[in-house]
Amino acid sequence: MKQPALLIIDMQNDFVRAGAPMQMPGAERIIKNIRKVMEVFRNLGYPVFHVVRVHRSDGSDVEIFRREMFKSVPFAVEGTGGVEIIEELRPLQGEYLIRKNRMSAFMNTDLDLLLRSLGIYTVFITGIQTPNCIRTTVFDAAALGYHTVLVEDAVAARTSAVHEANLLDMANIGTVLISTDSTADLVRG
Amino acid sequence: MKQPALLIIDMQNDFVRAGAPMQMPGAERIIKNIRKVMEVFRNLGYPVFHVVRVHRSDGSDVEIFRREMFKSVPFAVEGTGGVEIIEELRPLQGEYLIRKNRMSAFMNTDLDLLLRSLGIYTVFITGIQTPNCIRTTVFDAAALGYHTVLVEDAVAARTSAVHEANLLDMANIGTVLISTDSTADLVRG
Questions:
Q1: Residues B129, B155: contact at Cβ < 8 Å?
Q2: Which among B58, B102, B114 has the least Cβ separation from residue A61?
Q3: How far is residue B82's CA from residue A130's CA, in Å, rounded to a whole number?
C-alpha cells in the first residue's frame, strides 16, 4: 500500500477517563487496539495524526446543541488537563496535531492540506465516537477523494446497535472495515 | 453600526521587527494606528480577533512557493518568540486568537464560524500585508457575506504602488476604505 496516514480522533482525558465530564463509555476498551495500530504506523515511519477537540473557555466555539450544556459542564477547554491526549497515546515529536472544534477532523482544519502536501491518498481511522466524529470524518475523507479504512475494533460508540448501524453505512460508501490484528498486513501489503 | 469585529492580521515579531527573517518594511509604521483602532473596539466592548500565522517546525504546512525558503530561514514557527504577537498589540484575556497557515484568515480556520456565532455582519481589517493576507481576507469576507471595512492607514505593503493598486481593487468590490482617525465615528455611528 502506498504510504497511508493514521488518524486517532478525540482520545482525550475529558472523553475517555472514568468520571470525566463527557466520558464515552467504551473508549477505554479501545486504547489497547489504537496503540497496536499506532505502533504499526510508527514502525513503518508512516505519519500519525492526533486529532483533538479544543474549545475556548468562553464556549463561543462550541456547537449550538451543546452550548448550554458547556456552560455548566465545560469540556476540552484549551489549557486544561482534560483537553490533553490520554497518557497511553501521547504523540511523539514529529507527529501531527490537528485541533478541531467540530466533529469532522477536516472542518476548519489544515488536515486535507497536510495530507495533500505529504502525498497521501489513504487514511486509517481510529478513535471515538462512531456515529459522530468518526463518521463525519470518514464521510468528509471520502468526499475529498481519500481511500478510507476504518479499524472497526479501534473505534467505539455508546451502544453496539449504534456502532453496527454506522459501520454498515460507512461500508456502503466504500469504506474498508478491518480489525486491529489485520492492520499490519494491510498497511505493509 | 451593528456590532462589528476587528481583525488584526500577522502583526508578529517575525514579520514586524527590524532584522526579523520575514520583516515587512512599513509594518512598524502602522503599529500606532492599529493600536488606536484596537482601543476603539476595546472601549466599546466589541470583539477583537488577533489573526496569526503559525507553522509547524518541519515546514509541512508552509505554502509550496515558500517551502524551500523556509528550510533555510524558518519563520512563524510554533513555540518560538518570532511567532508571538508584538508587545504593543498583545491580546487581552477574552479576545480571540485565530491561527492560520495560509494568507486568508478564513482558510481552514473557525473565524467564519465564530463571527456567525457572535452575530457579526461587519469586519474591520488591519495588519499586513496589503496584497497578500489583507486582500485574500477581504475577498473571502466579501464572498462569505460580510460588510468589509479596510482601515487604509493601518495596513501596509512593501511599496506604495502595490498598496494603492490593491486598495483600488478592494474598493471596487465594495470594501469601505477609511482612515484610522475616522474609525471611531464610523463604529459608533
A1: yes
A2: B114
A3: 40
Instruction: From chain A, pick out residues whose CB is under 8 angstroms from the CB of B114.
Output: 60-61
For residues B137 and B125, the answer to whether their CB atoms sit within 8 Å is: yes
| Nearest residue to A126 via CA among A92, A97, A99, A149 | A149
Domain ranges of chain A: 5-52+85-188
Q: In terms of DSSP H, where are the helices of A24-134?
A: 31-44, 67-72, 111-117
Vertex B188, ends B49 and B135: CA angle to 5°?
40
DSSP letter string over A9-41? Answer: E--BHHHHSTT-TT--TTTGGGHHHHHHHHHHH
Q: Does B175 touch chain A (CB under 8 A)?
A: no
Q: Residues B54, B101: contact at Cβ < 8 Å?
A: yes
Please give the model's pTM, rounded to 2 decimal places. Answer: 0.90
CATH code 3.40.50.850 for A5-52+85-188 = yes
DSSP A91: P
Residue type, A167: L
Please name the residue that has the C-alpha cell 508584538.
B86
Provide the CATH number for the domain formed by B5-188 in this structure. Answer: 3.40.50.850
CB contact, 8 Å: A96 with chain B?
Answer: yes
Residue-by-residue pLDDT tens, chain B, 189 positions: 789 999 999 999 999 999 998 999 999 999 999 999 999 999 999 999 999 999 999 999 999 999 999 999 999 999 999 999 999 999 999 999 999 999 999 999 999 999 999 999 999 999 999 999 999 999 999 999 999 999 999 999 999 999 999 999 999 999 999 999 999 999 988
Q: Grid coordinates standing for B153? A: 492607514
